[in-house]
Specification:
binds ligand PBG, two-stranded antiparallel sheet, 17% strand, 330 residues, TIM Barrel, 12 strands, eight-stranded parallel barrel, alpha/beta
């Protein structure tokens, strides 16, 4: 008869009784300083194109990006990740090495405008620049590794030259971190950091991004270079290799179906861990909000908070602008 009284010595609800208490005992913080806003950059000037599969996100020309970033910065978002959406695509991905391309131009404008107040990260990958949409060069039906890596390293140097603080290789070729590091150092860019997309999975959640960036592969898929979602030990292997090769930050991507991977990487990584809350994850929330079946603020905070709790230091997310503008975070 006394059993239930014994059990009730333990009342976890005591610590949930009011807002102040909940604040005092909260285990993690989610702040604007943890967020990196992703942006799509198009060539030219004075243009903004809405992206239908990503409500609230647009492609901007470099000049139009400036005021957008300025407002985010004023709201506390200190970092951006830039993706190019070029006009020119060819088998050699020549656009990736164009020092006058849309991304180098945007980097120069942003760094001139905001200096060290803004950390500029740039995606390094060939898929927006190849006509076949794969992340490396093609021989027959194969995405070849080593020649792709050589060009990725050159692309990284072009971005570093433009002033990028971080280059972010997202191609998943083997050995690219070490090649990029050596190439950057040889070219005098030893101060440019590498945020490595270390554990990047072949994912259905990249759909809206490929629409936004026009980077869908024209044949096959990315499973011969991006990781299989059934594997976690392999993620650790990729992370350890990237650390050995010189990554300054390692990343897990996507985030929501991979929270266990974020946690596991957190346990082994000696550098900050980033997680990428990708386009499909963003679109699911936005479409649910649009349909009236989700409350945006609550859902965004829960999504980003969950990624933080899993162990991410940084979160690359398309929700950053709005979350900061609406004052959802401190
Ligand atoms: C380029 C790249 C992709 C993403 C980031 N860099 C697409 C892909 O690998 O197909 C996806 C980002 C997102 O979905 O938000 N390789």
């Amino acid at each position: 008869m006394n059993d239930y009284r014994l059990d009730l010595i333990h009342r976890p609800r005591r610590l949930r009784a009011n807002e102040n208490l909940r604040e005092i005992v909260a285990e993690i913080d989610l702040r604007t300083r943890h967020l990196v806003q992703g942006h799509f950059v198009i060539p030219g000037s004075s243009e903004q194109q809405e992206i239908s599969s990503m409500p609230g996100v647009s492609r901007y020309t470099a000049d139009r990006l400036i005021p957008v970033v300025e407002r985010d910065l004023a709201n506390g978002v200190r970092a951006v990740m830039l993706f190019g959406v070029p006009d020119v695509k060819n088998p050699q991905a020549t656009g990736a090495l164009d020092a006058d391309g849309e991304v180098p131009n945007a980097v120069r404008l942003l760094k001139t405008a905001f200096g060290d107040e803004l950390t500029v990260m740039t995606d390094v990958c060939l898929c927006p620049y190849t006509d076949h949409g794969h992340c490396g060069f093609i021989e027959g039906e194969e995405v070849v590794n080593d020649s792709s890596v050589a060009t990725l390293a050159q692309m990284a140097a072009v971005l570093a030259e433009a002033g990028a603080d971080f280059v972010g290789p997202s191609d998943m070729m083997d050995g690219r971190i070490s090649e990029i590091r050596h190439h950057l150092d040889d070219a005098g860019f030893e101060r440019t950091s590498i945020i490595a997309y270390s554990a990047k999975y072949a994912s259905a959640f990249y759909g809206p991004f490929r629409d936004a960036a026009g980077s869908s592969p024209s044949f096959g898929d990315r499973r011969s270079y991006q990781m299989d979602f059934r594997n976690s030990r392999e993620a650790i292997r990729e992370v350890l290799l990237d650390l050995e090769e010189g990554a300054d930050v390692v990343m897990v991507k996507p985030a929501l179906a991979y929270l266990d991977i974020i946690r596991a990487v957190r346990e082994v990584s000696t550098v900050p861990v980033a997680a990428y809350n990708v386009s499909g994850e963003y679109a699911m929330v936005q479409l649910a909000v649009r349909e009236g079946i989700a409350e945006e603020r609550a859902m965004v905070l829960e999504v980003l908070g969950g990624i933080r709790r899993a162990g991410a230091d940084l979160i690359i997310t398309y929700h950053a602008s709005r979350a900061a503008a609406e004052g959802w975070l401190s």
